[in-house]
Every structure is written in C-alpha cells, then in structure tokens.
Amino acid sequence: MNEERKIAIEEVEAVEAPPKARVDDAFDAPTEAPAGVRDAYERKRDYLTGFLSQKPEPLSGTEPGGELYEAVIDALKEIYDPEIPVNIYDLGLIYGVDITADGHAAVTMTLTTPHCPVAESMPGEVELRVGSVPGVGTAEVNLVWDPPWDPQKMSDEAKLELGML
Q1: For the segment 20-78, what is each residue's pLDDT rounded down to a tens digit?
Q2: What is the DSSP string of 15-52?
Q3: Structural element, H or E, at residue 104
Q4: From CA 84, how far away is CA 77, in angstroms rounded?
Q5: CB-CB contact of 98 with 60 (8 Å)
Q6: What whole-number distance in Å separates Cα of residue 93 and Cα of residue 139?
Q7: Distance between alpha carbon 88 and the CA centroid of its chain, in Å?
Q8: Are the C-beta atoms of 52 and 59 separated by less than 8 Å?
Q9: Which helix (H) or strand (E) holds 161?
Q10: pTM score
C-alpha cells in the first residue's frame, strides 16, 4: 500500500481581512429580554468616572512616601559603612522602618557579617541619627541576622559605586 500523497498549492492575490472585533459586539443581550436584564449586559461608558475622580488619601507622614518616613530614610542614608564607601541604606542593611503615629521609630537592620568591626557601634549610631530627626520621639534599633545580608540586597546605585554593575 504505497499511496502517494500530493499537496495542492493554490496561489492567491489577496485574502479578505476578517472582521475586527468590537467591544459593542462582545455580548448581545436578547432583544426580547426584560429591560432590567438588557441593561445589565450593556457596557457602561462611565465605568471609570468614579475611579478617576477620586483623590488619593493624604499621607500621615509615617508611611513610605510620608514626610517623616522620608526624613528618617534620609538620616539613614547619611550613615556610611566604614569599610565600604556606601551608605547603610543603599548597602541593603536596613530591612525595615516602622513609625507610629506618636513618633516612635523602629528600625530593623543587619550588618554585613556578625564579626563586623562596627557591630557594637553601628546600631547606636543608627539610633542616635534616627532619634535626632524632627518629629521622631523615640528610636529603637532591632539588629537581626535572619535573613543574612548578601550583596543582592544592595541598591543599583551601591552596586554601581562598587563596580559590580
């Protein structure tokens, strides 16, 4: 059974383009359906009006983007690692900054290694600098080792400064 198959090739000048889909054509409600059912299927043209007219809630200052939060971040960016010419924030040593409404700032941070030469002095310096930010009543530093610091935690600016990019 050795049948030979042939593929027929037909050359054409042009192909008619298929009709374009329109949102209005996506779903047709039955014309005999009650008015309430038909209205439910109709696309509302002003569905974004309410969303776009909303104004963002004003920041309290203690969350990211708020004035006090950003002032604390700026203070952290003034503290440099003595062995690496990069600030501790861009170095990725700051894991979190939490500020309460009454001005208590808690900074969660780590060091590059537990045997870092500034292991005893760095948390104290962070506490002093954060505590000196106007609007911060008390500052607390929580030194953690988990997750351990690694170079991937550095910002792109820090990597560029150190020639890692």
Answers
A1: 877 655 555 555 556 565 566 655 666 677 777 788 777 677 788 789 999 999 999 99
A2: -PPPPPP-GGGS----TTS-HHHHHHHSPPTTTTHHHH
A3: strand 104-109
A4: 13
A5: no
A6: 17
A7: 20
A8: no
A9: helix 156-161
A10: 0.63
